[in-house]
Amino acid sequence: MQPQIVILICAVVLVLVSFIIWICSRYKKCPSDKIMVVYGSIGKNKDGTNRSAKCIHGGAEFVIPVFQSYAYLDLTPISIQVDLKNALSRQNIRIDVPSRFTVGISTEPGVMQNAAERLLGLQLSEIQELSKDIIFGQLRLIIATMDIEEINTDRDKFLAAVSSNVETELKKIGLRLINVNVTDISDESGYIAALGKEAAAKAINDAKRSVAEQDRDGSIGEANARMDQRIKVSEADSVAIQGENEAKMKIAMSEAALKEKEAEAMKIATTAEKIQAAKALEESYAAEQAAEQARRAKEQATLEADIIVRAEAKKKEMELEAEAEAEQLRRKAKGEADAIYAKMEAEARGLEEILKKQAAGFAEIVKSAGGDADAALKLLIADKLEDLMRVQVDAVKNIKIDKVTVWDGGQNGDGKTSTANFISGMMKSVPPLDEVFTLAGMQLPSILGKKIDENKADAPVEDTQAQ
User: Fold this and answer.
1) Are the CB atoms for 82 and 134 separated by under 8 Å?
2) Beta-strand runs (E) in 305-455
3) Residues of the chain whose pLDDT is less than 50?
4) Are 90 and 168 in a shared domain?
5) Which of 56, 170, 190, 328 could form a disulfide with 175 if both were Cys (CB 3.0 to 4.6 A apart)?
């Protein structure tokens, strides 16, 4: 085997092996901590629109060379510190809510598609800032709908509302909420601290009241024992006991008045709280209504702009089509006019040549007749005499007479029979040569015969012999 052939075979095998390795390298495997996004020529959705990307998690996919490419989305959790300050609660009291959120790219099919469309190519810091903006807005919205007591005491309700609202908004960009931790809540006015002091004071008062009640029960028992002793021993002791009871009655009346005042204060606080809550809710509804009207105006303006742009484009297209069609008609008409003009010009030139040739021929005929025009005319007529006679004969030869029935009754007054009159009348219907020449403004040549004067023809013929 020749060395050149061996080298060629080796080169072909090397190219095939390289091509196979390159094809195999396009089979991409997706790690468990990432999402592989294949984009390019993916296909179409159910509604007929082009599919933007194909997301794969925990599998592999063959990436078609030239037509497709791929990229990865990292599933590593992102920790976001959110220090919300001066958030307005439903009671119009501004509070600080420091918290930490943990988010990550979702692996749900629909949410994963959102992440491929909105987060592909973004850095971790950019995703973190985008998530922080969404969390800030939702936290302010949730705090505006809750009382400070609910936020401070019912943490489960507050965290549930935060998780629900924040995760709903994060799913729109392809993220999911993993964890939320609210460290502490404080306010500038000291309302939360006052609530703590109120709770502590209430607990202390309850304890004191319980101790007093126990002391009172013990005192009553002891008093009863002493009363029995004093009743039996001395009326002085009964007077002392009566004084003690009166003092206790005054204490009870004082405590009742205190409770009444506390109830009135609680009623006033509850009424003011409800009024403030109603005002906050009214302002929230008014803000939502204004935002909805602005969104509606924006959507209407966008829709009107789209319709106007499409109408102007359609109008421009129709104008261009009309101009093109008019230009085509003008060119076609100009071509037809040029063709007609050329045809008529050619016909005129041909007719001019024919007339020139005829004039030259007539000049030669007159020249051959010695310059005598009458003689030249006679020569032309003599040349055409055969054709003239043929026209005379053709006028009657095509008359088809299948049958002629003649009832001949003898001779008429002029000595002719009916048959002779029929033949004579038919021949007279053919124009005589003399009349044809006369209508043409010419005179029958004398060689063809001379017309007899009618006056002489009608005169009687004299008998020369008699004379």
Assistant:
1) no
2) none
3) 430, 456-467
4) yes
5) 170
Whether 200 contacts 208, CB under 8 Å: no
Quick one: angle between helices 191-233 and 235-368, nearest 10? 160
Residue 89, Cβ density class (10 Å: 0-12 exposed, 13-18 middle, ≥19 buried):
buried
Task: Give the burial class of 256: count Cβ atoms within 10 A of its Cβ; 0-12 exposed, 13-18 middle, 19 or more buried.
Answer: exposed
Q: Hey, is 148 helix, strand or coil?
A: helix
CB within 8 Å of 107: residues ≥ 6 apart: 35, 57, 75
CA distance 5 to 13: 12
Please report which helix (H) or strand (E) contains residue 320, including its range. helix 235-368
* Total-model pTM: 0.39
Name beta bridge partners: 61.
28
Specify if 332 maps to a domain.
no
Count of other CB atoms within 10 angstroms of residue 386: 9
Residue 351: inside a domain: no
Residue with tokens 């609530």: 195
Domain that holds residue 101: 76-187
d(CA 148, CA 154): 10
